[in-house]
Amino acid sequence: KAQYEVVATTAVPARRGSGGSNVVDYALSSSHIPGASIYRRSGFAAEGRNQRNCAKFGSPDRAQEEFLSKGGPKRDVMGLDPDGDGFACGWDPRPYRKALGG
Predict the structure, then answer these.
(1) Burial, 48: exposed, middle or buried (Cβ in 10 Å; 0-12, 13-18, 19+)?
(2) pLDDT digit string (tens) for 40-87?
(3) Phi, psi of 49, deg, nearest 5
(4) For residue 36, what are the CA distances in angstroms to 2, 12, 54?
(5) Collapsing DSSP states into helix, strand and coil, what is residue 96?
(6) Could you tell me the sign of the dihedral formed by the alpha carbons of 88, 27, 94, 11, in that order?
(7) pTM, whole model, 2 decimals?
(8) What distances in angstroms separate CA 71 from CA 9, 18, 62, 65, 100, one per listed residue?
(9) Distance (Å, whole) CA 90 – CA 102
(10) I need a surface site. Which of 10, 36, 94, 102 has the fewest CB within 10 A?
(11) Rounded to whole angstroms, how far apart are CA atoms 88 and 101?
(12) What SS3 state is found at 81?
């Protein structure tokens, strides 16, 4: 007969100070919807550059982390946010907001 031990759950530790940009913090600190342009972007060949640069990342989360670490959302030096919504490569903050109950 197998015996099982009950383990009490604890809170997930905070990621602050991990040295990287935190997409969860950014998602929870923003309130606008994806596609709502709030930052000025240069339009010259933006869409093609965006597609090429976004293809370098394994996921939108990775692209958003890199975007934030390079000055995003105010600056977009890598061309990851051509519409100026503050979200790189189709990244969507809504699942994070929903998980928190927002």
Answers:
(1) exposed
(2) 987 766 778 899 999 999 999 999 999 999 999 999 999 999 999 999
(3) -65, -40
(4) 55, 32, 19
(5) helix
(6) positive
(7) 0.76
(8) 37, 17, 15, 10, 26
(9) 20
(10) 10
(11) 23
(12) coil
- Say how far apart CA 51 and CA 88 lie, in whole Å: 11
* Tokens of residue 52, six digits: 């090429």
Q: What are phi and psi of 29, to 5 degrees?
A: -90, -10
> Torsions phi, psi of 83, nearest 5?
-85, -5
Q: Which two tokens stand for residue 96?
A: 């994070």
**pLDDT at residue number 20:** 60
- From CA 53, how far away is CA 98, in angstroms rounded? 28
Token pair listed for 83: 């519409």
